[in-house]
Amino acid sequence: MEGKGGSRIVVVVGATNRLDLLDPAILRAGRFGFQIFVPLPNEEDRKDILGYYLKGVPFSSETNLNEVVAMVARESEGFFGADLKSLCQDAKICALCSSNFKASVPLKMDYFVEAITKVASPHLIIRLIVDHIRYSAQPILGCSPWGQSTRILLTGLIGCPLDTKRVK
Question: What's the pTM value of the predicted model, to 2 decimals?
Answer without folding.
Answer: 0.61
